[in-house]
Amino acid sequence: MKYDFEIESGWSSASMLKKFISNGFQSVVDSKGLETSFTITSTGTPYIIKKRSDSTHITSVIRNVGTTQSASKMLENLNLDFDYPKPTGLVSYLVKMYSKKNSTILDFFAGSGTTGQAVTELNSEDGGTRKFILATNNENNIAEEITYERMKRVSSGTEKYESKPLNLKYFKTDFVIKEEFPDVSLEYELLKYITPLAELEFAIDIINPKVQIVLNEDQLESLIDNNELISNSTLFMHPDVFRDTEQNQILTELQIKVQEIPNYFFGKEMWSK
After folding, report:
1. pTM for the whole thing?
2. Where are the beta strands (DSSP E) in 52-186?
3. Cα–Cα distance measured from residue 224 to residue 212, given in angstroms and rounded to the nearest whole number
């Protein structure tokens, strides 16, 4: 039995439907080379059918966590552009499922920085104190121009995105060739990197005046003599720095916490290896 009917819609496949009708209701080929036909459901809704010869992606069982399209829109709100970004909703869902509220989330393939934004928004949502570490190979300057820039705009906000302030830093990795620094000279070379290592290890910001790094006894003596110690602050101190009774008394009176810098920062275990 046949009936006449009209279809009015802003449907994206309308042109394909017209082509299907013009072809005598026989299958047509779409722009991707897929054999395409249409049918009408029992409720009168047009339904598109595409015949695929090759396997395709698996439909996710996870629902309502965003799409690549919504992720791209999010980046637009941050005035950035990146191909095929992951949805923040999906990453938030996974982080919430498999971590605690005080976890540190490490993403070795950071891409546009979705994980960092997802963790930040999840903390804002549930009061968590999660931290994140993003790593990327900086291909095409992605680390500086996309990943870091995205997190900076998440922190400061844009006209279309409410700010979520962060203690944000990024570091570049490098190699120290130990053969070029035999014996104790390796420790002296590694001293150049103590500040960023301490910042990473202890999640501190060396710009904070209440955080100071002391690598030798002369430096400690200078801080005391010039009244540069700050009460209720923290000194990150080389394990070999000796403090006499008077210096310890001064630190105690100022309620200064002394945090010993781990020995492995100084490469001693690598001297003979």
Report:
1. 0.59
2. 104-107, 131-134
3. 13
CA distance 254 to 132: 33
d(CA 241, CA 219): 10
Kindly tell me if the per-residue pLDDT of 273 is higher than 50: no
Q: What is the pLDDT of residues 226-267, one digit of tens each?
A: 999 999 999 999 888 999 999 999 999 999 999 998 887 776
Nearest to 134 by CA among 115, 121, 152: 115
Which residue's structure tokens are 């150049």? 192
* pLDDT (tens digit per residue) in 66-107: 888 888 888 999 999 888 889 999 999 999 888 899 999 999
**The residue count for the chain:** 273
Give the tokens for residue 132: 């994140």
pLDDT at position 59 is 60
Q: State the Cα–Cα distance between residues 248 and 65, nearest whole angstrom.
A: 55
SS3 call for 103 = coil
Rounded distance, CA 78 to CA 83, Å?
Answer: 14
**Beta carbons of 116 and 150 less than 8 angstroms apart:** yes
In the three-class reduction of DSSP (H, G, I as helix; E, B as strand; rest coil), residue 38 is classed as strand
CB 28, CB 18: distance < 8 Å = no
Structure tokens at 104: 């540190």
